[in-house]
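Go through this pair.

…
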Amino acid sequence: MTAATHSTLFPQVPETADAVLDGLDPEQREVARALSGPVCVLAGAGTGKTRAITHRIAYGVRAGILQPASVLAVTFTNRAAGEMRGRLRELGAGGVQARTFHSAALRQLQFFWPKAVGGDMPRLLDRKIQLVADAAARCRIRLDRNELRDVTGEIEWAKVTQTVPADYPAAVAKSVRDAPRDPAEISQIYALYEQLKRDRSVIDFEDVLLLTVGILQDRHDIAEQIRRQYQHFVVDEYQDVSPLQQRLLDLWLGDRDNLCVVGDASQTIYSFTGATPDHLLNFRNRHPNATVVKLVRDYRSTPQVVHLANGLLSQARGRAAEHRLELISQRDPGPEPAYTEYADEPAEAEGTARRIRDLIAAGVPAGEIAVLYRINAQSEVYEQALADAGVPYQLRGAERFFERQEVREAGIALRGAARAGGNDSLLDDAEDLPSQVRAVLSTKGWTTKPPSGSGAVRDRWESLAALVRLAEDFARAKSGATLSDLVAELDERAAAQHAPTVQGVTLASLHAAKGLEWDAVFLVGLTEGMMPITYAKTDEQVEEERRLLYVGVTRARLHLSLSWALSRAPGGRASRRPTRFLKGLRPGSGSLGSGTVARAGGIERGLTGGRRKPRGPVLCRVCGATLTEAGAMKLMRCEDCPSDMDEGLYERLRDWRAEQAKELAQPAYCVFTDKTLMAIAERVPTTDGELSSISGVGVRKLDRFGADVLAICAGGEGRTGEDEVS
């Protein structure tokens, strides 16, 4: 028997209880039939855990063993809770409550507040960040926007781990946690934040859990009323339970053991929020008579993807690794994972975009493709590469690079400094463009060394550091460039990377990808320092980074590509090394040991798309200087070298592009970017070969638009989109 990966949109409700079990594999069926006592389901990625637990609930309801109103199923996101409710309705068990921990607790708190406390319940804060800002101001501690977000996150962590303000510094030291500010300062802000809430009669989301716990502990009559209501509990993603959520669950249960938990310790990647797999790993110690079922049949990924996922965990250490699950793919064989080593980051992004374009041409929908990276600051180069390749994309879990608050603020500061010129004292000691940019951005949070720890402060620094590197590259490519020139370049880049709100390739961080899956996944930037991240110092932190990569691998159904770059910029020193996590798994990286045989789809060194030789320096066609900036390389000349562009041709090309974009219902840059049109107008190609030699004109665009462009270059008119379709 096999489990379906995708259900139909309107499945038929099973006619009988036994029919609910149809289509379940033996282990899923065992889960569905285990309706009494404690049950622990250890479910690997892609093994149909949601299918198993929803069929378990539905089978119990349809067989008359469980009353729908007596079941409470809890998970961690509204999306997951909604999906669970939908599946239960499809199985004929629509009366079951499926909620997040917070929504279930809030419902109980609102109902019992008049009885337990009296009066009106305090107002629930939608966002606590403004109140944290007020608390910091009263403490005379200045926080910028990103520090404010990080301190807010620390307060949330303290509350879900049931740490009071006075104990916060000791708790941070014990947990080896990197605090974004002095722990004593955060403790002070935390204490005043709690006082302000009381003064203003408001509560936050963590208070919802804390107050519900308090009422259930103090009012046994209310606790018993809830226990009479809910006789059976199901907890999904149990590896992500915090100590506070576990405490609430214990109070819901009382002295009963009708509890079913589902989780996978190998997918614990949110420990920085207070999540811990300890409750899952200790379940059998707390419940010695528990039924334990392991789901290892992977219905999502091919044997090739599953083999790599298993190989990653085979090298893991620590307690979670001792309980790892060896997945067994149930799908037909597919392509081997591809491992590609690139000379530099732009080459990696261009090669990734080229492979994505080939997959789309082969019939893989753009919405079934994802590019996953470790931190959000890595997105910019992939946004540019996909835009140049004419591939639509969407960002998940992050703002676009040029729409990020810190990037907008940096742009404003740079523009102001450019207008002030020599009158800005900040630039007195800055001798060149890069030092001017560093001086300006130092007022926005950029430092010569990155901040320790993760979170918004680190993300902000990464964004500003990307602007500093861009200024350095720009200055090398354009001798004598001014701050005004750089501001103009930033404006052009921002305009060129303006993505449409259409279905496209997903760009996301590995954390944001949890719970999702695609036909094709590209894991990029897999170098030491990024995977594992530099601030992962302890063994526990490094192992969580390994699990993060495991989550990334298991998002892929069929196509999986892993890549890294040896240097940041073209011509840079090849000093980077691929992640240690792939040692023994990728070709040429040594043996796994322990009898594990590495299997892989081959590695490509210094290639882009597997067909091109390693590229050497790109030289200006006017003065012969080495080009390093992407726009200059597209034009094949320095920005300040004389341009021989045919202005009339350029305008005709732009008009033609606008018509094409309109007819194809795509943004203009998906046809050709401005820089590509400028390059065409400068070189005025007359043959397919001359046109294809221009960066941004690949095989696909040559086939689709080549005849039009050459006709326009020859003085004619291109076809309209309708002509092309017909």
The two ends are 47 Å apart (CA to CA). The mean pLDDT is 83. The longest strand covers residues 556-567.
